[in-house]
Task: structure prediction
Amino acid sequence: MAEMELLETSDGSTPISIEILPPNRGLGLDGIHGFFQGLGDWKPAFVSVTYHQAHKIDVIEAEGPDTQIWNRKKPGTLGVCAMLKFQYGLKVIPHLICGGFSRFESEDFLVDLDYLGMENVLVLRGDPKKGDGEFKPHSGGNQYASELVAQISSLNKGNYLEEVKEAKPTNFKIGVAGYPEMHREAVDFKVDILNLKHKVDEGASFIITQMFFENKYFFEFVKKCREVGITVPIIPGLKVLTSKRQLEVLPDLFHTKMPASLIEEVNACENREQVIEVGVKHALEQARGLVEFGVPCLHFFTMNDLTTFSKVLDGLRS
Ligand code: FAD
Result:
């Protein structure tokens, strides 16, 4: 664990990290600046920044045939990371996905990260594209996250895709995703954990989990990981419930279960503010249980929502 310097705190308290999303195309960085300025003097252990695959959109031409182009709704992962690193002095972890990238394009992206001094990456396969039933790798691209991890480990040894004389090895520390309630496509839990172990064996040195709303799933998951010999830090991912709709949307999107007590409390709420209050209370209970368990860090999927995250932070610091 000591090898992951991101997780060191001066006072020995459990570090807190956050995930943010790049803004939608055209919205600029005001929202991101507002978020970080709103945090005042508090600095997260690290900020991970999501990557969003392009989707096909129709371009209707006034004259000539209509065409389809690939467009990314949220570009700017690299730009946001660079801005946070150089302007705010934060430790950043860009997400890197297999979907939409050939292996050469992944290498290009990694070269940019290397030149910018960004040594931590979170490597993901990416979800299937909208409309695709299953994940399809880009032609010449990686099919599984483990393959991209292996590609990066190879770069760390100075092996680029085409032979480079006197190549300079990179020094990436690689994080990968883990699923306390199993990845939705996995044949079974055991196989999913073994696939996770494969990512670690290929060179991953930390794991960040998918969100979960009952700590027992995380505790059981960590036990299963340790049993198969996964020894790297496992960082729990937490999301604060902020609307009644999320009671149905989140289990569907993220293959997670909501505890009956949380569903009941949220359904009894009369407005959004009350739901957020319940969501924050629940997240704080989860966080305290996880700290007691001895997690190396608490990672919050903030959805760039400063108001809600500030309530969590206040709760954790009081
Ligand atoms: P993999 O590890 O490749 O696993 C995918 C599935 O394949 C699993 O079911 C696994 O068991 C199975 N599998 C693995 N290896 C093999 C093999 N060799 N043979 C057969 N089956 C195998 N998505 C984004 O698009 N952008 C993001 O920024 C993003 N950030 C995320 C952050 C976190 C913390 C988490 C938990 C998820 C994030 N995701 C993101 C979602 C992620 O891309 C999806 O969950 C995706 O469906 C799986 O990604 P993975 O890296 O876990 O895939």
